[in-house]
Amino acid sequence: MSEVIAVAMSGGVDSSVVAGMLHRQGARVIGLTMQLWNQRRLPELATDKPTGRCCSLDDVYDARHVAQHLGIPYYVVNFEDRFEQQVVKPFVDEYLAGRTPIPCTLCNNFIKFDQFLDMADGVGAHRIATGHYAQIAWNSDSGRWEMRRSVDRAKDQTYFLFGLTQPQLARTLFPLGGFEKPQVRELARELAIPTAAKPDSQEICFVPNGDYAAFIDAYFREQGISPKETAGELVTTEGRVVGEHSGVHHFTVGQRRGLGVAAGEPLYVIATEPETRRVVIGRNDALLRATMRVKDVNWISIAPPAAPIRAEIKIRNKHAAAPATITPVDATHVEVRFDEPQRAVTPGQGAVFYSGELVLGGGWIE
Hints:
Layout: E1 4-8, H1 13-24, E2 28-35, H2 57-70, E3 74-78, H3 80-96, H4 103-112, H5 115-122, E4 127-129, E5 135-139, E6 144-148, H6 166-170, E7 172-173, H7 181-190, H8 212-223, E8 232-236, E9 241-245, E10 268-273, E11 278-282, E12 288-299, E13 309-314, E14 322-328, E15 334-343, E16 350-355, E17 358-365
Parallel strand pairs: 1-2, 1-4, 2-3, 4-7, 8-11
Antiparallel strand pairs: 5-6, 6-17, 8-9, 10-11, 12-15, 12-17, 13-14, 13-16, 14-15, 16-17
Helix pairs in contact: 1-2, 1-7, 3-4
């Protein structure tokens, strides 16, 4: 190998191993780190406990250290403004609209596999590589790039990658897709990667304590914005008022804790209604849905189907993909009917379509 490959270096063990692997194979590796969020902002959200966030200042230091160890060029590029416009603000808007967004997918769609490719062009790299756990292969019969789940199913990240396009897949490498995580740790030790023992990041980079509602409140205070009134009533599925709440953005479908209502049985958030400022609560069986509509669908491994198809569908990252029939509505919308009703189908979350290991595509639950 002698081609130039830009590696998205987050400072974690996975991307560090990718850089080390490709460098050892003879590629001309350039390490690039995207500075996405100033973690000195919103100090009231800081915690003394380790947060396990990605993209921190310590991560930038670690990525630079790994690049120096490998002897590869390394650059940090500031994408804070674009990240705020394309990830943070949509995240806030979606919560206030009663939906539950996935900022990591937005980041992949609009930053890591869009702007990053442009940045790679700027350093003369035709291809990029990341530490995501997924697999890409060319299917000569269909004439398409296909995405498949990673070998390590516990680390599989295809749920967050459903927005990738054919041109992006053509230029992307996921070198870790065929490895189990313990093998990656062993490779890190073999390559003497300085971050070999570093724990994995778990939380969203701009939400240091995992409290989305607290972040939204703090963000509005920082911006000097008075958000529209979101406090309102807690009502049962029958419409009976049983309490009050401090804001619809404090709740998501399926939530049980923090309702503040005493009852003889467990109650859950069934829906949020920003227009009426109501939060609907009820029993677990009220969370079951047999159908849903999905918008902004991106077909990855197959061409857009003209007729209903069968697939397994994940409606959350940790959800066990459920058998269903997908019926096209138009170029960007589908209707889904599950074989068995699914719990907590949540507007704003991703719906990702699988056929066994193959990732067919995905979109956003309406």
